[in-house]
Structures are given as structure tokens and as C-alpha cells.
Amino acid sequence: MKKYLLKRIAMAVVTIWAIITITFILMHSVPGDPFRQESKMPKVVYENLHKKYGLDKPLSEQYIIYLGKIIRGDFGDSMKSRVETVNDMIKRGLPVSAFIGLEALLIAVVFGPALGAIAALNQNKWPDYLSMIIAIIGVSVPSFIMGTVFIQFLARNIEWLPIGGWGSFRHSILPSIALALMPLAQLARYMRSSMLEVLGQDYIKTAKSKGISKATVVLRHAVRNAILPVVSILGTVATNLIVGSFVIEKIFGIPGLGMFFITSINNRDYPLIMGTTIFYAIILVIMLLIVDIAYMLIDPRIKLTKEGR
Amino acid sequence: MKAGLDVSPELFNAADKEDKNAERIRRPSIRYWPDVWRRLKMNKLAMTGLLLICILGVMSFVGTKINGFTYFEQNYSLINSHPDSVHWFGTDELGRDLFTRNWFGVRYSLFIGIMAAFIDFFIGVLYGGIAGISNRKVDSVMMRIAEIIYSIPYLLVVILISVVFSQAGQGSSMFVLIFSLSLTSWVPMAILVRGQVLQLKESEYALASESLGADKSWILKKHIIPNTLGPILVNVTLEIPRAIFAEATLGFIGLGLQAPKSSLGTLANSGLAGLPVGNSYQLFIPAIFISLIMFAFNVLGDGLRDALDPRLRK
Amino acid sequence: MNNILEVKNLQISFKTFFGEVEAVRDITFSVGRKETVAIVGESGCGKSVTASGIMQLLPMPPAFFKGGEILFNGEDLLKKTEKQMQAIRGNKISMVFQDPMTSLNPTMKIGYQIVEGLVKHHKMSREAAVKKSVEMLELVAVPQPEKRINQYPHEFSGGMRQRVMIALAMVCNPQLLIADEPTTALDVTVQAQILELMKKLQEQMEMSIILITHDLGIVADMSDRVVVMYAGQILEVGLTHEIFASPKHPYTRKLLASVPRLDMSREEPLYSIDGTPPDLYVPPKGCSFYDRCSSAMKICKDNMPEFDEHSATHQSRCWLNHPMAQKMNSMDGREV
To answer: Are the C-beta atoms of residues B312 and B38 closer than 8 Å to each other?
Structure first.
């Protein structure tokens, strides 16, 4: 297992490096000069700005410098704002985004597989059809559309639910539900097919032949096996969650990292975009790594066959 | 023995051979693709999806012409008007007819989604085929590279490329969108194709050593191709809504197709401004279209996957 | 009551897309105490459905009990509630399945899988149950049971897994063990071991066994009585030596003839029965073996024969037993 673990971590590191490099190359291939966007400025100021951002050095040198900064956790400066750096933005926005993200993750991870399991246990009866319709809608209606639906039809009509902004727990309810729906639906669908497959297995028949109650068979025997493949897609689910958060924050006016990211995109603040993208990517790659490791730990078959290597 | 049975001696003569039908096959043997189609047809949801796609596809060309307005005509006296008998979907903030604009949006979104999926298909088949045919070393290097490419977060790449290749305040061109959407998603297809090619390679070697002749490899092609085509078809069908979703997300961030040739995502984004002032139709109409397209392809893809699964044969 | 199990006129069918499949068409047999009864037949003849049906482990849609009784110790199992059946399964009646590779839960330690039944049925404490499982594993000759109790199924070989299955099934001392092709998926050498084990356990625990198989070699070795099934029906029943020494039904004869023997010469073709069993969507009105029977007569096609007794323990249902058939045969020298 250790060998596989190391290989996996190495892959993650390589991936992060690849992302940094690609992002760097992309940001520096923007046609035209980013600074030209500012209205006319005196030549001296222009040259000073170039020096400040190190843009006068050759590209390869800039690359090394940048790489060094990232390793030390410095994600760069903003071009448009004189006072804020990417790290500042992250400090401000991350807690907010993380809160909503985790709330949404919790909702999705608890209700998704539950819905899928209920559907599988009642195959082709009304709970199945209902759950699957909910799931199909969840998968087909993008989260931002759900968000606007919530705002329009719920928030406007219910005093207690704020339309947007940030400040109390109430503000996080609608956004996290809107964000959670698609992952929830994905998990439900996956869980359903996984459960159905498990329920048809021989060992379930063995369990029943021992005379244990249906509830025990389902919970102890079936779910334990069915949940494994579902864990493996948690990584994708987390990815969707993060990207979905950009737009949700925009719609609900939530001052999270996603909102800043979108603003920096609209402003074409390239260093900001670069730094934030890399930060997101690192988080994603780490999350995928964690999911992989978790899967390896949970499935007893993997632990030991790898040991035999 | 039962009493009262009519036991004429005649009955105890040997039975005629023709009377027996031991070898009669009960049900006609079923051929592959017609059976897949039959099973798909039984799935009402999938058929609804297929129908929806056809309707949307047709309407995306017809709908843009029927009411006589173009997508770029601006009419300042009628800005932000609600849907009525003249402008069936209302007008936007520049007075352009939203019915026409929305159907154009459907057309663009469908085009982008389908193109991205097909490019995935081509790159995937090419890459996977080459990897499968090549020797071990080349193959494993290619697969390693593919793995890394695949682990780069899809949407981040899409956003990044769109940002780079578009001007601020404007969206991206169709080419950029399709390019960025297909950049990392071809990998599952490649893995699939490579697997099948490897299988084919192995069986041909095995056959050669048994010297059974070229005839068998033809038969294998009859097995390998249906085996591969199925999952590939499902993959492509499900890739389309992924791409459309990504494009819509881009549009919502402001990186979608450039106006005035707006995609559904861009339309929805513009419509967002109409929400607080009571022009919710500007947002919800493209939103509904996006959802319908995704629903239709998802459901069709699901249905295809079920129809191709040999285990679900009733 | 001498018979631990009495199956009377059992009918089990399946509702499918294409119609009703009559998998078990009116069968009657019994199992005595400490007796081993083998049910033999080709695949699809209904023997597995019968086995699962006794335990009521069939998926209830699409399966349904069309009629009959299953008397266990005098009580009709078909009238029991699910909860009552749960108390019986694993406890009074146990089952061992065919494929040891897939019959054990891969994510659960095998110790737990054995203990589970004990805790539920005998309300044992954890420690007591673990102790008993170790004893059980010793009994089925699994080496180092204290250590292996914490291992997972994939750490065992096929033969070992089947032993674990048997331990699992027997741990609550059932009165009846239903073994559905217990050795089919195993190597021949391992087969012998498992069968030995079952015989030993049967002696020790005084239980009855229903042995489902298509392998006549095992039948000869293990069983006291044999039930021959075909297309959902019983065609012949008898003591093992009666069936082997003087099979009455053409099907039984063909089955016996198709077992390859060591003393066959190389030139002799391997004997197999032509054709395939009938479609159970539209079951034949007459004898189900009609299509493939070389002794078939005109009466066989549309008329179902009744059982005739050849001895107190030996019955078969075939028109050849009819006195008229005897007469015709003696007349034109036909082989019966």
C-alpha cells in the first residue's frame, strides 16, 4: 500500500506542477499587453510597473520566481488593486466559501446516497420513480438556475429567507441547498445503481438465508458494499461543488472566494486570476487525493492485495 | 394408474419422429442492434428525451425565422417588454426579440455541445487507438500523460482558456469555447478505445498462433465493434450535456458566446439583470431551455446505457 | 412425525414480461430425520428454485407460490410470516450455496459473518459467540481459526471459503441443511474433502441434508434417497441403490448412461442426451420428457402419467409402466 500511496502523491504533485505551468503559460500568452488596458499612463510609470511586477525579466526567469513564490504559499499580487494580494483575497473569501461549500457537501452526502438507497430498495415502485425524477432534475438543472428559482420564488415570498448577502446562518441556507442539488442528484443516481447491483449479489442471499432481518441486511451488508463506488465519485462531486460555488456566490451576492474570482475575471486582472486558479486547483487535487486514500482505506480488498505486491 | 383413461392399444405405439420437436427453438434469435433499439424504445423517458432533442433541433432553425424578427434588430421603444402576441418571449434591454434570440441560443448551445463531444470522440479514438497499437513503453507513457491531463480540473481549464482568448467585457468565440471544452474530456474515451484495441491485439495473436485464418478476425470485428461502439455512443451522448452545462456556466460568468450571437448561457446572464425589476422571463426562458436540453440528453444517454447493458435483458 | 420436511404438491411460478413461467409444477417429496436426499436434474429443471423456495428466499415478485404446502416439523412454512421465517432461517434450516467466491460478503470479516447468526438466533454474548465460531472453524478444518476469524473472504481459497460457508450454515445447529450444488465450483480433490466434511458433520449434529446437484457421482456417495427432477416435475424417486441399480424412467436411465466411466473404451462416444428441456412458458400437457425420449409413445404426448410404485420406496411416472405398454412391448420385442 505504501508504494501505491507514494505513487499517488507523486502524481498529485506532478499534476499541480502541470497546472501551475499551464496557467503561467496561458496568462502570459494573452494577446496584447495587460497593462495597455489601463488608460494612457506616462512612460516612466509604465516602465516602473513593469519592473515592479518583474515583467521586464525573461519569461523563464519569471517562471522560476513564480514557482518559488507558490511553494512558499505566496499566490501573487493583484494588478488592479494596489493593496490587495491574492493571499489577502483568499484570507477574506475562503472562510465564507468553505462554509457554504461544506454545508452543501453535507447536504449532498447525507441525502444523496439516502435517496439512492431508498430508490433501489423500492425498485420500480413509486419511491423509486419519485427519487429518480428528483435526481434527473437535479442533474439537468444547473445550480445557478436553481439558485435564481429559489430567489425568485422562495426568498421573495418568505420574509425569513434573505434574498442575498451574507451575515448570518440564514444567509447560507438557500445558497447551500442550491449548490447541493446537483451533487446530491449525482450521488443519488450512482448510489441507486450501486445498490441495485449489490442487492443482486450472492452474499446478500447468504445473509438472508441466515435469518437476519431485512433492515440489518440492507444496512449492514448492502450499504457497506454499495457505498464504495459512491465514495470514488466524491472527488468529481467536490469539483462540481467548487465550480458551482462561483456562480452561486455571484447570484446570491455572497462575498466568497468565488465572487472575487469572477470579479477578477471580469476585470481581466491576470495575476489575480492566475493565483486564484492555482489555489483552487491545488485544493481540488488535494481533495481528489484524499478521496482516493479514503477509498483505499475503506475497501478491505484493496488494502491487502496491494500489500502482497 | 388412472382409471377411466381411454387406453386403446393404438396409443401405446411408438410416437412418430415428426411429432417431436426437441430441437425447435422457442423464440427467434435476436440480433444485436435491432434489439438495442427495441429496448430503447421501451424506455419512455429516453424516448421523450429523443423527441425533445429532435423538436429543439428543428425549432432551433425554424423558430428563428417564423416571427420575422432578427436577433440583432434593436427597437428602443420596446425595451424590456413582457411576452405578448407580437414578441412571444418578450424583448431584452436593447429591444431585441427574445423569441428569435432564444432559438438562436438553442442552436448555438446545441452546436457547441455536440461539436465538443464529437471532438472528444475523435481525439479519444485517435489517441486510444495509437496507444493501444503501440508497444508497451509508448503506451504507458501515453496513458500517464492522459491521466495527468484528466486530473486537471475540467472547468478551471475551460475558464482559464476562455479568459485568455477573449477580451474583457466580451465573451469568447465559438472556436475558443469548443476548443476549451474538449481539451481534457477526451481521456475517458481514449481509455475505452485503448482497452478494446488491446483486446483485439491479443486475440489476433492468439488466433495467429492457432492458425485459424483471417476469417476469425472478421468475426471478432463483429464482436469488438459492437462492444466498443455501445459505450462510446453512451459516452458521447452524456458528454454533450456536460459541455452544454460548462458553456452555460461560462456564460453566466460572462465568458460565454459574444453578443449579439448569444448562447443560452449568455442570455441567462443578461437576463439576470432583469430579475429584480420584474423581468424574470428574460432569465427563466433561456434557463428552461438549458435545463430541457440537459434533461433530454441525460435521459437519452441513460436509456442508451441501459439498453446496451446485456445484464438487463428481460 | 418421522419426516422433518414434507413438500406436498408444490407449485412455484414466475411472472415475467413474456408470461408466466412454471418453474416448479406440482412436486411432492419428503425428507426424514438424519436422512440425505439428493435432488438431481439438468440445469433449469427447478431444483434450485425448489431449494430457495423452501427457505422462501426467492424474489417475491416475480416469483410466487402457486400452490402446495411445505411442512417443516408439521408446520406449513408457506403460512408463516416473514418474521417467523427469519427465526427459522439460519437456525432450524440452513443453506449452503454454490459459488463460494461470491457467497461471502467481501467487506466483512468472516468471523463476524459467522457470529451474526449466533447472536441473532441464540442471543449469545459477543465473547461466547466468538468462541463458538472458533470451535466451528476448527470443526470444518480451517487452520488457525483464532487468527483467521479476523480475516476477509478474499484471504481464503475457494475450498476454504466453502468450509467457512458450511461453518456459517451449521453454527446454529440446524435440523435441515440445504446444499445447493455445494461442490460444483470447486476442484475435484477439494470436492471430496468438502463432501467428507458434510458427512461427518451430519453424523455429529444429526441433521438432514437436501443435496441439490447434477453430479451423479456425488449422489452415489452421499445420499440415501434420490429425487429426479425434470422440467419442474419429479419423474422418479427412490433409494439410492434402487435408482442406480434399476432406474425405471427413461430420463433417469439416460442420466446414468451419460456419466463417463473409467472403464469405458476410448472408442465409445460420450453419451449425452439430445435436445433441450421444454419451454416452461407453455408447459407440455403430457410427459415433459416426450420430445427427447427414445421410448416415447403416442399416449405420452398429451397425457401426463401418474406415479407407479415399484417398491415401497421406489416410484416413477411413465407410461411405460402401464400394463398396456408392457403388453405391446412383449408383442413386438421393444425394449422397455
So the answer is: no
- Smallest CA-to-CA distance from A234 within A281, A151, A169, A290 is with A290
HSE, CB side, 13 Å, CA atoms: give it for residue A180: 23
Three-state SS for C63?
strand
Between strands C208-213 and C36-40, the pairing is parallel
pLDDT in single tens digits along all 314 residues of chain B: 444 455 666 667 666 666 566 555 455 566 677 777 888 888 888 888 899 999 998 888 888 777 777 777 777 777 777 877 777 788 777 778 888 888 888 988 899 899 999 999 999 888 888 888 788 888 888 888 888 888 788 888 888 888 777 765 566 778 888 888 888 888 888 888 888 778 777 766 656 655 555 555 555 566 666 677 888 888 889 889 988 888 888 888 878 777 777 888 888 888 887 777 777 788 888 889 999 999 999 999 888 888 877 655 44
Helix (H, G, I), strand (E, B) or coil at C186: coil
Q: Does A205 touch chain C (CB under 8 A)?
A: yes
Q: What are phi and psi of C71, to 5 degrees?
A: -95, 120
Q: Cβ(A243)–Cβ(A97) under 8 Å?
A: no
Q: How far is B77 from chain A (nearest CA, A)?
A: 27
ipTM of the complex: 0.83
Chain centre to alpha carbon of residue A69: 24
Buried b (16+ CB within 10 A) or exposed e, A242-268: bbbbbbbbbbbebebbbbbbbebbebb
Cα Rg of chain A (Å, integer): 24
**DSSP output for C86-128:** HHHBTTTEEEE-S-TTTSS-TTS-HHHHHHHHHHHHH---HHH
Q: Are C162 and C100 in contact (CB under 8 A)?
A: yes
Cell output for C247: 432406474
Task: For residue A166, give the C-alpha cell.
Answer: 451574507
Question: By a Cβ cutoff of 8 Å, what residues of chain C touch chain A?
Answer: 55, 57, 82, 85-91, 94-95, 97, 99, 102-108, 116-117, 120-121, 152, 154-155, 165, 168-169
- In this prediction the pTM is 0.83
Report DSSP letters for B211-248, one per residue.
T--HHHHHHHHHHHHHHHHHHHHHHHHHHHHHHHHHHH
Distance CA C255, CA C42 (A): 9
A53-68 b/e (C-beta count within 10 Å ≥ 16 → b): beeeeeeeebbeebee
